[in-house]
Write a structure and sequence with these properties.
Blueprint: E1 3-9, E2 16-25, E3 28-33, H1 44-50, E4 54-59, H2 76-89, E5 95-100, H3 102-113, E6 118-124, H4 149-162, H5 168-183, H6 185-192, E7 215-220, H7 228-237, E8 242-246, H8 253-256, H9 258-271
Helix pairs in contact: 1-9, 2-3, 4-5, 5-6
Length: 279
Amino acid sequence: MTRQILSLDLGSDVGCQPAAYLSQGQGEPLLMLHGFLGQAACWQPLITQLQSQAWCIGLDLLGFGQSGKPKLRYDVAQEVAFVRQFMARLSLKSCYLVGHSFGGWVAAAYALAYPEAVKGLILVGPAGIRDDSFCGRYDHLRPLLWETPLIDGLLAVARSLSRAIGQKATVDQLTWFRRELMAEPAARSFLVDRLRPEDAIDTVENDIHRLRVPTLVIAGEKDETIPLWHCQTYANTIPGAQLVTIPNASHALPQNHAADLAPLILSFLARRNHSSFPT
């Protein structure tokens, strides 16, 4: 599976930016949007399962992977505009949107903005629901957001001592997180600009009741990143939405539970019936 690049004109403030994506299979188009600190490659196990029955398109969102990484204040509206331009370049008038975590948030926001372009929503452990309990939980990790070599130096010292003090796994994880944040400007921007509850101005829980597209919400039973009630909020608020919980599944659903996701998605596509869907 080869990664392809399109150039998108995102306007005078952002200019032309590359959009990197994977494309495989044939049939109903499924545009797949990855999660936070992710990229389109996370969908490869699922694409392998679906490619014989669907056209799978995995997109690196703006600021992630090999897509453009302009310096700007990232928000969901920027990502929605990026997806819109990408679909236009592929001449996709409508498609199914499959979004994991942060990608689920973008998918829901896209469906709100362009409902005529969305045949159906498949939200996999979706973010995008305001949750004030997150605030303060990760305050001790804020230094990882600082753009200073001091933090990298301190992590280097910690790595040299980590095995002796039995903290190698923790320090390795912090080092990875720091490296990813410095490489992915969108991720860093989202965290820096959303450190307080009142910063959650573009979550979608107050608007998703307006959605009138078939929706499947898939949750992991043991997801420690997106609480189950976030998925339940989507399912209970979007008219006609269905919620399925995968037993013993973590947040890494596309990577580790593709065999569980694939039949759910194929069944959803087969059942789609707009004429009987509530309006």
